[in-house]
Amino acid sequence: MFFVRKIGIDLGTCNSVVFIPSKGVVLQEPSVVAVSLLENKILAVGREAKDMLGKTPDTLKVYRPLKDGVIADFRVTQAMLRYFIEKTSSPFNRFFKPELIIGVPAGITSTERRAVIEAGMNAGAKAVYVAKEPILAAIGANIPINTSSGHMIVDIGGGTAEMAVISLGGIVNWGSIRMAGDKIDEAIANYIKEKHNLAIGEQTAEEIKVNISTALPEKEEKVIQIRGRDLILGLPKTVKISSNEVCVAISDVLMEIIQTIKQVLRETPPELSADVIDGGIVLTGGSALLRNFDQLIEKSIGVPCFVADEPLLCVAKGTGVVAENLETYKKSLMTKR
Length: 337
What we know:
By secondary structure, this protein is of the alpha+beta class. It folds into 3 domains: 6-135 and 314-336, ATPase, nucleotide binding domain (Nucleotidyltransferase, domain 5, 2-Layer Sandwich), CATH 3.30.420; 143-179 and 250-309, ATPase, nucleotide binding domain (Nucleotidyltransferase, domain 5, 2-Layer Sandwich), CATH 3.30.420.40; 181-249, ATPase, substrate binding domain, subdomain 4 (Actin, Chain A, domain 4, Alpha-Beta Complex), CATH 3.90.640. It is 38% helix and 28% strand. Strands 3-2-1-9-10-19 form a 6-stranded mixed β-sheet, sandwiched between helices. It has a 5-stranded mixed β-sheet with strand order 13-12-11-17-18, with helices on both faces. It has a 3-stranded antiparallel β-sheet with strand order 5-4-6. β9, α3 (110-122) and β10 (127-132) form a beta-alpha-beta unit. α2 crosses α3, α4 (133-140) packs across α10 (314-324) and α5 (181-196) packs antiparallel against α7 (243-266). 48% of the residues are buried.
């Protein structure tokens, strides 16, 4: 048993985070893979592959093997998992197959769950356990999930936004919407196309989101200069975009997420609703970093809202806690092969 390694993986649509007990977060890479179409061979994974986005010739394809939090391309996901296992292995422990704890969306189907387990096993794992991301996010955000109090967690990643009310170690009520970071990027790109007649790539849209986006209008606007292709002349062009413009661009996506949070709260037992009002809503996931989003939720729903510490790492930290206490969590949380 001494040589059984445990690796926790937050397998996200946009980013994957690898956590090893006693070491913490050891790897944080984009969930992107570059494939050579001529040789049908994987050329790059993670950051190296992401740098190629929008710049490849016809013979190369750069894409994400996960869509809306689940596997869209089995073979490539498997290669990505193998890359994560190998990259976090020392020469000594490379001979010992690890046990993987992988976070999956709450709304995952049994077929999708089986695909995650199989991909992990084929990538070289000894055993694969899958746990629902809202629970892992709550554990990673230091929420005492095993108490009888109700806690609401909203985990907004790249592909999905999931919200769950958790009590006594399980999910009492949950909702999931395929509106998250990717849709925010898309909304920014569409707005710039319509307002400025400028076509921009995925990476530029993400750069705008990370640097200046806000969920509420601001008195002191931030401005960023971006480059793209003029849709009328077809030539390169530079424009300036303000944070309040981005606020307008993404408002519909954010309101969809808020509507789903409201729906989950409407269907939550009254005693747990009272607990949520007392304890507030906790935001996790990369998109929780969107400025003023917690304030927008609080203003729209009337319930206090907080961003967890290191929201991007909450699910990964949760996998780490589960890995360290695998025997405790095995029965209650997870399915295994």
